[in-house]
(D)CMP kinase (Petralouisia muris), 221 residues
Amino acid sequence: MAFNIAIDGPAGAGKSTIAKKAAEALSYIYVDTGAMYRAMALYFLRKGIAADDEASVNAACEEITVSISMENGEQQVFLNGENVNGLIRTEEVGKMTSATSIYRKVREKLTDLQRSMAQTTDLIMDGRDIGTSVLPKAQVKIYLTASVETRGKRRFLELQEKGIDCSLETICADIAKRDEQDMNREISPLRQAEDAVLIDSSDMSIQEVTEKILKLVRERR
């Protein structure tokens, strides 16, 4: 039976970074579900679809194929056969992702693929509703969070390192708004699963969080 680890939490909590490190340490496959939703959001943006136009979003879902593969230990996301890894991490795509991932059609499109992978593969999957909806029977569930201020500073420094002009105040406001959207959406809202372990990374290093997760896995495997 495959061993599954579900990591949920708000934007900017470090889910992807931590999941990648833990997956590498365990020799598990890492599945970044957020990247898959971002790929769909990129398609909607390219088509000029408004985030609140659910009918057009639903129709566009029929035109989209999202797939993933591992290359040199890194997950690659493909949108209709195009590798879009380098295009899906912008603020614009992030906002569209949060706005359109509330739609049932969008979620159904990807959930079946994610569940199918988990049935046969030892993996770590991160997102907003993995432990509560996508993989409710995951052997280890983590809810990883951090304060808005901490997450904002992390994102601010990340963008600065890339030479992107940005405002810390604006970034924090965007994160708070996204939290509200994710936690209050009608379908699969962001919340901590009853059997998930809460980890607040505000005052923890990446290594400290990773080690805590690895300890949980060793105890339950």
